[in-house]
Amino acid sequence: HLDDSDYPDGRISSTYLYISIFVICVFTPLTWVRQIEKFRYGFMFGVSMILLAVITISIFCYDIISERDFVRPQSGYYSINKERYWDMVGFSFFMFEGIGSVMPVMNACDDRARANFPFLLAGALITLCSIYILFSELCYFTFGNNLNEAIVMQEMPSDSLIIQIVKLLYCLNLVFSYPLCIFPTNLVIDSIIFDDFLKLEPNTKKRLWAENVSRAVVCIMGVLLAVFLYDKLDKVIALSGTFLGTTVVLFIPATCHYKLVATSRFHGSNFQKGVDIFIIVYAFTALVVCSTTIF
After folding, report:
1. What is the pLDDT of residues 150-179, one digit of tens each?
2. Which of 16, 154, 260, 278 has CA atoms 20 to 30 A from the CA of 27?
């Protein structure tokens, strides 16, 4: 945790300064790699580490519950946490962050898999939804109202060697996952700055190093935000999920579908129009309500 001792005289402590410099030095060169397929094995490692973390936390939660004979914790439960309920809405939008990979995956499938793709997609969504519900219910049943950390891993016993190893492996996961997550952002920034604004010729040394500097700046900004907003991490994620989720996930797709399909003479229907209008109204309502209540 960060407290006043971490910012003596209004400045960041030397420990966090050294950690920030180390992270920047490690992550920045990784963002300079243009061929993201080189990270495919790292991505598989990262997914494995996420699964390992879920399994480890679940085992520790079960152990904690069994020690108290499967009764509720003394802190009790809230059926609805009125103070932080809207934070959950903002968080929930990040469940859609992988939806952009659906079409590329479908196009990469063979004819047999493509014919059954709706069933595969439904099975994947049902599986993920079940895991989200079961894992969150298990953690809340374990800690109750004492579940105060933005990252549930922080609720685990810090003196456990197993937890320390899992945390270390999870940090390695970030090394592999960050270049993949930030790759679309860097492509958009490169296109706007160096194609539309500066009009630099592609595949030149000047363009290459200009992009490298831009990607280093993005990494530095991310580290600074992580350091100074750590204590408000849940609020920041919820707010960004609200602003970006309601627009990118709900409003824009529903509007495009309404214009291109729902109102089409050949493929449209009143039912599709109604669904699109409902999603648009819900997105606008969620944006207004969540953004005004999160903080």
Report:
1. 678 888 888 889 888 988 888 888 888 888
2. 154
